[in-house]
Amino acid sequence: TQLLEQSPQFLSIQEGENLTVYCNSSSVFSSLQWYRQEPGEGPVLLVTVVTGGEVKKLKRLTFQFGDARKDSSLHITAAQPGDTGLYLCAGDIGNTGKLIFGQGTTLQVKP
Amino acid sequence: DAGITQSPRHKVTETGTPVTLRCHQTENHRYMYWYRQDPGHGLRLIHYSYGVKDTDKGEVSDGYSVSRSKTEDFLLTLESATSSQTSVYFCAISDMPRDNYGYTFGSGTRLTVV
Fold it and tell me: For B19-70, what is each residue's pLDDT tens digit?
């Protein structure tokens, strides 16, 4: 069974702080995606990274794909209460279209 | 999402009864997936479809079957529901897995087996 480990599982911070969420595996991924999920809703795609070493920015969110395509990180700068939610990483092994998901990181940003 | 709907949104059923969940899409996407989400496990793939009448098993397929007779509909059936199948079920669609554009998820079905 391929595993995708996310850390931390829970994060509670004050508005304005920075944070990083990590996603690690022993498997090589053809692509890796990050999703954000709010209570009672399905996950929503934030970004897809494909190339080893790739960095993508989405406003205050920075996503990085490891050089070996086995790990990824999500960095949020100056977190806001609207960033609160469950963040999920998901990897595609072998370009099959079937995603393996991490357990998720629950982020709470307090005003 | 407007292009994908799941029904019902909530269901309570008794152990041993069959249950069918429906996923309907208006995007004409080829690929459709059923996942379940449980605390501590993230999302796990149950079954997926790569075209009409073309389906295959995922990681946790035991006790589930699927059917896809039309591009727009993907049905998930719990043949004889058990308490371990209490979960939130998500359907997802994708145009071409190799375009790396990711999934679009439905809003989920919360199923409770009592």
Answer: 999 999 999 999 999 999 998 788 999 999 999 999 999 999 999 999 999 9
A101 with B43: Cβ contact below 8 A = yes
- Shortest distance between the Cα of A45 and any Cα of chain B, in A, equals 7
Contact B58 A98 (CB under 8 A): yes
Q: Among all chains, which residue has been given the structure tokens 């357990």?
A: A103
Distant-in-sequence contacts of A57-60, Cβ < 8 A, 24+ apart: none
The dihedral built from the CA positions of residue A51, A59, B92 and B43, taken in this order, carries a sign that is positive
Rounded to whole angstroms, what are the CA distances from B25 to A39, A109, B36, B102?
Answer: 22, 34, 18, 16
Structure tokens at A89: 């990483």
Among candidates A1, A98, A102 on the partner chain, residue whose Cβ is nearest the Cβ of B48: A98
Per-residue pLDDT of chain A (111 residues; tens, 9 = 90+): 558 999 999 999 999 999 999 999 999 998 899 999 999 999 999 999 999 999 999 999 999 999 999 999 999 999 999 999 999 999 987 777 789 999 999 999 999
Task: Indicate the SS3 state at residue B84.
Answer: helix
Is the distance from CB of B82 to CB of B15 less than 8 angstroms?
A: yes
Q: Is A99 an interface residue toward B (CB < 8 Å)?
A: yes
> Integer distance in angstroms from the first to the last C-alpha of chain A?
40
CA–CA dist A54, A87 (Å, integer):
19
CA-based torsion, B46, B26, A46, B11: positive or negative: negative
